[in-house]
Specification:
alpha/beta, Rossmann fold, 8-stranded mixed beta sheet, 8 strands, single chain
Length: 257
Amino acid sequence: MLPLPFTKRYLKSYVKRKLSKIQARVSELEIAVDALIENPKYVSYDENGFNGQRLRKQIFRELTTALKFNAIVETGTQVGHTTGYMAEVSGLPVYSCELNRRPHLIAKMRLSDFKNIRLELSDSLHYLNKLANSSLSQQNVFFYLDAHPDPGNTLAPPLGEEINIIANHWKDFVIMADDFLVPEDAGYKHNDYGKNNALSLKFIDREIKKHGLIPFFPSFPAAEETGYRAGCVVLTKTGIPEEQISRLTSLTRAKGF
């Protein structure tokens, strides 16, 4: 028989994990129901896409205008708000995966009128590896990495592994990672999974060094942003994309790079 103090600690931890999973599932259901009630079909409006962030949308528009991408790949469709926005604004083929079945099915319904969107129920690593072995790996691609763990899972998303797959298989690419810590601006929200797993440059330091990536952050303070005000980082290799991004008004090169 386990010692009583250990049993109490274990029970407390178990209940906490269970409650976290229930809360995450409820939140997922609320997002799904809201999407179905408000817009059963994707509708273009100012607050739609990229967390309702006006300046994030400006970053996206400047990137797609300057770098002439051939396609967009998104990890983490959820119910399709950002997927639809990117497809509508860019006119490019958009490939997107979602880990959880319910939001994936809702996104399929809401985005069914788009001919340039391809959705798949898949985890991000399997999906990126699949695309890496297709003709898409020979094209200039914008990657929007917004995958999250299964609801209630406290593990950090496999952002480093996603970056490795992209950098190993694509010659021409730009990555934007959502929910990322913006240095020296606490007004931008970011995800923190504990145990040194905050989404920050430290979290992906090994991948940055391994692939010689250059990080860029929003040039606007969070106080000027709208919507959820989540932070992001934009990554690319040295060379022409780096030079083009350096000229954009919406992004600024990270200090020390």
